[in-house]
Amino acid sequence: TMTSGTTLTRPITDRQIEALGRLVGVKKSRRHEEWEVEDARILRSQLRGWAVLTGDMRPLFLDPEHAAATPWKTLIAPPGILVCYEGIDPEIDCLPGSAAVLEAAKIEWDGPIRLGDTVFPESTLTAYQELTGDPTQGRVVALDIATELRNGDGLRVGRAHGTSSEALRGQGGARRRSATQSRYPGRQPGPGWERP
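The chain above was modelled as a monomer; its predicted structure follows.
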């Protein structure tokens, strides 16, 4: 446990880029032990928190009486929460010490996440691309991560696909990423994406 408040950073190295290539296509999932399941159920307070966080305060997410009269018969989660379940943390699992910025997210619903459900994510790094090649100027690496969520019955409730870019905190690459690389010139991120 770090108590000093110090942020650990280091340059993105050739070795890290090589290791990143070995992570492409590897699925990362989280299954709860039997004793964890009860504590993993979706709570009303979580649904409210997600509604507030996403700014989507419809009664379907907040009002039990209203939700009981809908086809779902209970409160459900707002769509934006799918990105909260990404099982790969780019700053830890992909390029430790770097800073990730989510550039785009695509969310697809297959069914509702209901009050009391458990949700099991499975995430995969689907692709990466180095956007800068000059280590003295700071490297920027784009990552595509796909996540699929299933409920306790094994039914898929949704998919989220995120594209982020990573660079060393405070290094020139991070500044260039935000200034010129955020639209990935010449690169089409993720399947089914369209850029303006």
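Confidence is low (pLDDT under 50) at residues 1-8, 172-196.
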